[in-house]
């Protein structure tokens, strides 16, 4: 891991930039944008979407209130994000997604359900975390079903790697958490190794955690469970 020698009082690097010389964990897909998604982007985007800037984000200004703020990396079509935000109106949810149909899908759900506690940034999550998320500012991070990159030669593209987790931890408040979920067992094993290897994180379970009540099962997860497929949740807290 490339990092400079300056460290804070906990020994965490101050100037490590995970965006330098990295392999991206996603592939940008065009995807078909439905008329409803396009309309949601045009009509609701100005209110709920935040442009990417290399400037720390002011959560109070963005959400127009002071509240615990949860970052979700890669929200897909947004159904899980919307359900969680609807069940926790007292918290702010900042969703980051690169794919336009997913952004349109979540915006439509925001409108349909009258949600006011979600904001969206359509950009690479690593760059967002590096430039827009201040140190010790997040109460939690959700990373649900990231691309597992099944082939061995592609494993290096997985998002959950030691340098990224180490850097992400610097953005958590004391007591803040990282919640990952995957339906690919080899990736679950890697996640467990990486998260347990970060000295500033503490596992809330012996190994894998029971699915927290706030994370709803997706339709694919329910179908997989009927077929005997596993799903692994990991919840780690910042010491």
UniProtKB/TrEMBL annotation:
<dbReference type="InterPro" id="IPR029063">
    <property type="entry name" value="SAM-dependent_MTases_sf"/>
</dbReference>
<keyword id="KW-0949">S-adenosyl-L-methionine</keyword>
<feature type="binding site">
    <location>
        <position position="124"/>
    </location>
    <ligand>
        <name>S-adenosyl-L-methionine</name>
    </ligand>
</feature>
<keyword id="KW-0489">Methyltransferase</keyword>
<dbReference type="Pfam" id="PF02390">
    <property type="entry name" value="Methyltransf_4"/>
</dbReference>
<feature type="binding site">
    <location>
        <position position="147"/>
    </location>
    <ligand>
        <name>S-adenosyl-L-methionine</name>
    </ligand>
</feature>
<feature type="region of interest" description="Interaction with RNA">
    <location>
        <begin position="153"/>
        <end position="158"/>
    </location>
</feature>
<dbReference type="InterPro" id="IPR055361">
    <property type="entry name" value="tRNA_methyltr_TrmB_bact"/>
</dbReference>
<keyword id="KW-0808">Transferase</keyword>
<feature type="binding site">
    <location>
        <position position="183"/>
    </location>
    <ligand>
        <name>substrate</name>
    </ligand>
</feature>
<feature type="binding site">
    <location>
        <position position="97"/>
    </location>
    <ligand>
        <name>S-adenosyl-L-methionine</name>
    </ligand>
</feature>
<keyword id="KW-0819">tRNA processing</keyword>
<comment type="function">
    <text>Catalyzes the formation of N(7)-methylguanine at position 46 (m7G46) in tRNA.</text>
</comment>
<dbReference type="GO" id="GO:0043527">
    <property type="term" value="C:tRNA methyltransferase complex"/>
</dbReference>
<dbReference type="GO" id="GO:0008176">
    <property type="term" value="F:tRNA (guanine(46)-N7)-methyltransferase activity"/>
</dbReference>
<feature type="binding site">
    <location>
        <position position="72"/>
    </location>
    <ligand>
        <name>S-adenosyl-L-methionine</name>
    </ligand>
</feature>
<comment type="similarity">
    <text>Belongs to the class I-like SAM-binding methyltransferase superfamily. TrmB family.</text>
</comment>
<feature type="binding site">
    <location>
        <position position="151"/>
    </location>
    <ligand>
        <name>substrate</name>
    </ligand>
</feature>
<protein>
    <recommendedName>
        <fullName>tRNA (guanine-N(7)-)-methyltransferase</fullName>
        <ecNumber>2.1.1.33</ecNumber>
    </recommendedName>
</protein>
<dbReference type="InterPro" id="IPR003358">
    <property type="entry name" value="tRNA_(Gua-N-7)_MeTrfase_Trmb"/>
</dbReference>
<comment type="pathway">
    <text>tRNA modification; N(7)-methylguanine-tRNA biosynthesis.</text>
</comment>
<feature type="binding site">
    <location>
        <begin position="218"/>
        <end position="221"/>
    </location>
    <ligand>
        <name>substrate</name>
    </ligand>
</feature>
């Amino acid at each position: 891991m490339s990092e400079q020698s300056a460290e804070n009082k906990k020994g965490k690097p101050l100037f490590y930039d995970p965006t330098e010389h990295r392999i991206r964990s996603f592939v940008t897909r065009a995807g078909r944008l439905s008329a409803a998604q396009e309309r949601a982007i045009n009509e609701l985007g100005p209110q709920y979407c935040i442009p990417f800037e290399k400037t720390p984000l002011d959560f109070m200004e963005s959400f127009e209130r002071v509240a615990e703020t949860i970052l979700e990396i890669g929200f897909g079509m947004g159904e899980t994000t919307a359900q969680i935000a609807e069940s926790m109106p007292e918290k702010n949810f900042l969703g980051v997604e690169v794919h336009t149909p997913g952004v349109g899908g979540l915006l439509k759900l925001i409108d349909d359900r009258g949600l006011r506690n979600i904001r969206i940034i359509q950009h690479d999550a690593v760059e967002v975390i590096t430039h827009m998320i201040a140190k010790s500012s997040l109460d939690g991070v959700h990373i649900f079903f990231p691309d597992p990159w099944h082939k061995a030669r592609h494993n290096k593209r997985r998002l959950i790697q030691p340098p990224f987790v180490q850097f992400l931890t610097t953005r958590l408040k004391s007591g803040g958490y990282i919640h990952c979920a995957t339906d690919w067992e080899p990736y679950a094993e890697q996640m467990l190794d990486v998260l347990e290897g970060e000295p500033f994180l503490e596992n809330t379970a012996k190994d894998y955690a029971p699915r927290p009540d706030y994370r709803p099962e997706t339709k694919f997860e329910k179908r997989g469970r009927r077929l005997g497929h596993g799903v692994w949740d990991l919840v780690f807290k910042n010491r």
